[in-house]
Fold this sequence. Notes:
Layout (H helix, E strand, L loop, with lengths): L3 E2 L10 E4 L4 H12 L4 E7 L2 E2 L9 H14 L4 E7 L4 E9 L13 E2 L1 H7 L3 H7 L3 H14 L4 E4 L3 H11 L8 H12 L1 E4 H5 L12 H7 L11 H18 L4 H4 L22 H4 L4
Parallel strand pairs: 2-6, 3-8, 8-9
Antiparallel strand pairs: 1-6, 3-5, 4-7, 5-6
Helix pairs in contact: 1-5, 2-6
Amino acid sequence: MAKIIGEAAIVGGKWKRDVWSHNLLEEIELMKHCLSEFPIVAMDTEFPGFLRCTPKGVSDEEFYQCLQFNVNRLSILQLGLTLTDENGRIGMTWEFNFQDFDKISNMEGVYSLDSFLKNKGFNFNILRSCGISPEEFRRQFNPILRSGRIQRWITFHGLYDIAYLMKFTNIICMPTSMSNFAIMAAHLLGTVTDLKHMARYSDYLLNGNLGLKKLAKMLQVNRIGTAHFAGSDSLLTASVYAKMRVIMKVDPKIHEGFLYGLPYPIQGYRPPVVIVDPKLTHNRI
Length: 285
């Protein structure tokens, strides 16, 4: 696999691997192998929109109540995962495509970017027919979470991204409070780093008052692929993270574990789970 600092790995002419129901198992196996060399995961999700919009100026808890309402009732179209490491080397990108994004009966009530996503090239019919079911994804991906292979998650303004990842892997309903959300996220995922929160410690990066596109432009990081597709966004997040680590002289302890907009840290060490084959211990005295 190519190893290029701050840039995408191009393997066989491709920078990402598209994952559908038919090839989920083989792609999960490949990811397990790659995580031994690239144990940090940059992520992004694409979802239909919002059933409840958050008014400006609300408290943290009011914002979280809107998130809880939306995430409990909606699902994602895509999950993008890009593997990287502490030295800024970037491995491969995976783009998982899901089928149950419109399973609720009142999708017409969703305040969303539906037409915008269609214009970007989302084919909802293919997602419905060939996409991965959440149950199958959970069954195949959860062993990776339990294995301890992932050292850290990287996001940009990633509160909704982390919430949907939690929903897709382990929980049915979001926790009822922000503090419980942070505790559960740390237990399930370990440590997260949010680049928007990280940028708050840099005057040059406008103290975090910017989007991913502008942040990448300021750091002279080029996008590969199309914006608002989860694979491209996760790759851009990984590339920006590599560049930020070079230019920012901030103690990682200050920003690691915090999501932008979440006052509680998501940080923890999850030791690898050792699975013992009962056949090997059955006759042990």
